[in-house]
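Let's study today's protein:

:::
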Amino acid sequence: MSLQLHLHHLENSRSFRILWLLEELGLEYQMTNYQRTKSYLAPKSLEKVHPTGKAPILEVTGLDANDPEAKTALIESGFIIDYLMAKYDTEFKLHPQIDADDRAWRDYDFWMHYAEASAMPALVMRLVFSKVVERSPALIRPIAKGIRKQVEASMISKNITKALDLIEAELSEDKWFAGAEFSAADIQMAFFVEAANAGQGLDEVRYTSILNWLKRCQARPAYRAAVAKGGKLEF
């Protein structure tokens, strides 16, 4: 029995990465779309698929040799990407072979980890503080806004700027995050860049290389197919 893939996709979430990658790989899969609640949280129904209740969740049927009908729920976008690369990218079109002496592999692995370990936390903090202000009672909302402004100035914006400057330096030298060829590292990093580019958008002079890279990503047929099926990322 061949493996069956079922992506549980939450709008405006990291699961867009997996949807995009499935399209890049040209795999057959099922997909269930989930809408966020009024509190901008994942719906409780996702907890029925995996106890964490977070997206992405990729259900794989057929992983258990003793029970080929059993479904295994994979979580965490980085782990799911690694799984899909190991299982389906056997010709290494979307990821380099592991070789500690190869710069392409080192760059690929670094950016795969950097996306969540260093880049995303500041953006998540910005989102959390914006939601705190939105949900604060009218009487204390000015206080909440003041706190948000101080945290934004002292921590959030500085960390985001450092991340963007590092990314700009990388993309000013290489077309993609792992060198000359598009890879899953670009998919992993795109979520952070799109989130950072929301609102007023990035400075077109300071971050020319980033914005040109983002246009190349968004022009890919697989990216467009993912948007058509799962919706455009909006932050």
